[in-house]
């Protein structure tokens, strides 16, 4: 090929055409337009095509996305209540049940202890 | 008598009006995101999948990609108060954080960017026949191994161009280079990759052009 700038321009045009998924005839036409011989153009076309097919976007899982978002939101409200509010609903429910259970347990113990003292 | 100034009334009105974050530009969201979690949430929704994809290819596995992606946004939230748009758009700023964290990750762990071949099986086109699918998997694995041998900045360039469909100008903003420098780097990168594949005695087979992609949501 003539020089680096010429090759750079050809590769830019070729990549844009492959990313736009233009038909092969147009890729051949590009090589002709930039005076690139087929023996040089062909491996480059194959390489760019392969990159286009291999390097595809990868999606994170929804659970991961939501967990990180909750953790980030918690940073806006560092208080205990703020952090509790960011927990999933089922965890909040479990925490509430544990809290109520503990409260009932303590209050029962308090009711029982004066009676025990009275027996003694 | 209560005297309410015009500016105070406007502030009150703005506070009580639900904001349409989705319609806002990054430049509008970033100052809000310093105190408003919903604004940061919108930025997160916009860029988290892109950052994840980028980090995934640089680390080669889901676990490290998730860990580093979370760290990118943790760092962003910690520093967003100090972010000023001095010609570096918000997304370029995020990619720079990601790039630095990935570099630290490889430096600290002292490992090469080894990508499991199994990870690439999932990227196979489901419509291909099993034989062709196996062949494609092998070609993809070879290409990925060749990519891993490139310097980090060249990998970054290819990922931004092919995975994220970024223009040379956008890539230049992220990599802190001029558009011309990116064009030139791309040229050198492709030739280096072609030579690397030749060394591996790998020649991708001629194939029909790919079907329209369904990769981006």
Structural overview:
The complex is a heterodimer of chains A (120) and B (217). Chain A is mostly helical. Chain A has three domains: 4-54; 60-87, no CATH class; 89-120. In chain A, 78% of the residues lie in helices and 0% in strands. Chain A has helices at 4-19, 24-33, 38-54, 62-74, 80-85, 89-119. In chain A, helix 1 (4-19) packs across helix 3 (38-54). Chain A is rod-shaped. The relative contact order of chain A is 0.06. Chain B has 217 residues and is mainly α. Chain B folds into two domains: 23-115, Rna Polymerase Sigma Factor, Chain: A (Orthogonal Bundle), CATH 1.10.1740.10; 130-202, Arc Repressor Mutant, subunit A (Orthogonal Bundle), CATH 1.10.10. Chain B is built from ten helices and no strands. In chain B, helix 3 (37-59) packs across helix 5, helix 4 (62-79) crosses helix 5 and helix 9 crosses helix 10 (179-199). The termini of chain B are far apart. The interface between A and B is large, with 40 and 58 residues.
Helix content of chain A: over 70%
Distance between the termini of chain B: 56 Å
Number of strands of chain B: 0
Strand count, sense and barrel status of the largest sheet of chain B are: none
Using the coordinates shown, work out and report the CATH topology of the largest domain in chain B. Answer: Rna Polymerase Sigma Factor, Chain: A
- The number of distinct helices of chain A, counting runs of at least 4 residues, comes to 6
**From the coordinates shown, what is the CATH architecture of the largest domain in chain B?**
Orthogonal Bundle
Radius of gyration of chain B: 22 Å
How many independent structural domains of chain B?
Answer: 2
The oligomeric status of these chains comes to: heterodimer
């Amino acid at each position: 090929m003539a020089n680096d700038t010429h090759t750079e321009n050809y590769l830019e045009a070729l990549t844009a055409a492959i990313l736009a998924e233009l038909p092969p005839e147009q890729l051949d036409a590009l090589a002709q337009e930039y005076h690139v011989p087929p023996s040089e153009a062909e491996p480059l076309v194959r390489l760019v095509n392969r990159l286009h097919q291999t390097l595809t976007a990868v999606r994170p899982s929804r659970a991961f996305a939501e967990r990180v978002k909750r953790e980030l939101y918690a940073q806006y409200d560092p208080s205990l209540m703020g952090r509790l509010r960011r927990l999933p609903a089922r965890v909040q429910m479990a925490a509430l049940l544990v809290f109520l259970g503990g409260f009932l347990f303590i209050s029962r113990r308090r009711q029982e202890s004066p009676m025990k003292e009275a027996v003694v | 008598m209560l005297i309410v100034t015009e500016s105070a009334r406007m502030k009150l009105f703005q506070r009580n009006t639900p904001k349409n974050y989705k319609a806002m530009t990054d430049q509008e969201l970033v100052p809000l995101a310093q105190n408003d979690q919903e604004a940061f949430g919108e930025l997160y929704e916009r860029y988290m999948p892109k950052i994840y994809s980028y980090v995934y290819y640089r680390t080669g596995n889901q676990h490290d990609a998730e860990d580093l992606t979370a760290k990118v946004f943790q760092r962003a939230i910690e520093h967003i108060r100090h972010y000023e748009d001095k010609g570096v758009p918000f997304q370029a700023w995020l990619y720079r954080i990601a790039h630095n964290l990935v570099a630290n990750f490889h430096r600290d762990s002292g490992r090469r960017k080894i990508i499991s071949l199994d990870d690439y099986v999932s990227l196979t086109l489901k419509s291909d026949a099993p034989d062709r699918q196996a062949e494609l998997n092998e070609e993809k694995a070879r290409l990925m191994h060749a990519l891993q041998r490139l310097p980090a900045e060249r990998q970054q360039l290819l990922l931004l161009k092919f995975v994220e469909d970024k223009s040379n100008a956008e890539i230049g903003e992220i990599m802190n280079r001029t558009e011309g420098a990116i064009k030139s780097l791309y040229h050198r990168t492709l030739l280096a990759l072609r030579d690397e594949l030749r060394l591996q005695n790998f020649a991708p087979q001629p194939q029909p052009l790919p079907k329209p992609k369904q990769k981006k949501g």
